[in-house]
Design a protein that fits this description.
251 residues; alpha/beta; sialyltransferase cstii, chain A; two-stranded parallel sheet
Length: 251
């Protein structure tokens, strides 16, 4: 069955709550859709999710990212890592990609390289919701032997409806990882686009003519997503956030 994306409310108030999140996670875990293979991959692991913010530039966190965690996850154009490894590391075990290959969105999908690197490719948007289904079908046609995982459809719909906006890929990754038996999730390099993107991640020229403003004030409203991360951090001891996000969330 194909579902429509929940309507967005640019000026609406989020109804997200930790209790709703727990209820939704439990429903997912008890359903036939629970991804046991991906759960086994994450179980009892310490994971770092590395985002696109320039807040990591000059911080020299690359070795920490590569060596202090069992698994390193990156988002959209974060793979492959081609430069600045001193700050962002070089290791990638999990790649969360929205599967929309436009330069304005997730960028190119490196099927061959990800296959060779043994990467688990995950989508923070569900298979059976419009318009994501189109990109998912294209990925499925081309993925070959890549291991893949998708955020659960009903779980995503509940989260998106409660947020009254479409979650960013990084926020979707946080929700999805925490829905499994991960031991710890350290989130770094996410600043809700307050400082744009780090060099080499996304060229600001492609965001000209008001696209960036429209995208992050219409499709991906940041405030409810900030509230979501704040509430998760305050109630789920598994999630740890870096200093930049801590400051933005006033924690």
């Amino acid at each position: 069955m194909l579902y429509s994306e929940p309507p967005r409310k640019p000026h609406g108030e989020s109804t997200f709550s930790f209790d709703l999140w727990k209820e939704s996670v439990n429903e997912y875990r008890e359903s036939d859709n629970f991804d046991k293979e991906y759960n086994q991959f994450l179980a009892k692991k310490q994971v770092v999710l590395v985002g696109p913010s320039p807040s990591l530039e000059g911080e020299g966190q690359g070795q920490f990212i590569d060596e202090m965690f069992d698994l390193v996850a990156r988002v959209n154009r974060g793979y492959p890592v081609s430069d600045n490894t001193k700050d962002i590391g070089s290791k990638t075990d999990i790649h969360y990609h929205c599967f929309h290959e436009s330069p304005k969105c997730g960028g190119k999908i490196y099927y061959k390289e990800m296959t060779e690197d043994g990467i688990y490719v995950c989508c923070p948007y569900p298979r059976y919701v419009k318009p994501f289904n189109i990109d998912v079908e294209r990925f499925e046609t081309n993925k070959g032997s890549l291991r893949s995982h998708y955020i659960d459809t009903r779980f995503y719909l509940k989260m998106a409806q409660s947020l009254t906006t479409r979650p960013n890929s990084g926020i979707g990754a946080i929700l999805d990882i925490l829905a499994h038996d991960v031991d710890k999730l350290y989130v770094t390099g996410f600043t809700f686009f307050q400082d744009g993107w780090r060099k080499g991640y996304k060229d600001d020229r492609i965001m000209e003519k008001g696209w960036k403003k429209a995208e992050f004030s219409g499709t991906h409203i940041q405030k409810p997503q900030m509230d979501l991360v704040r509430e998760l951090h305050q109630n789920d001891t598994r999630i740890i956030i870096d200093d930049s996000m801590t400051k933005i969330l006033e924690l």
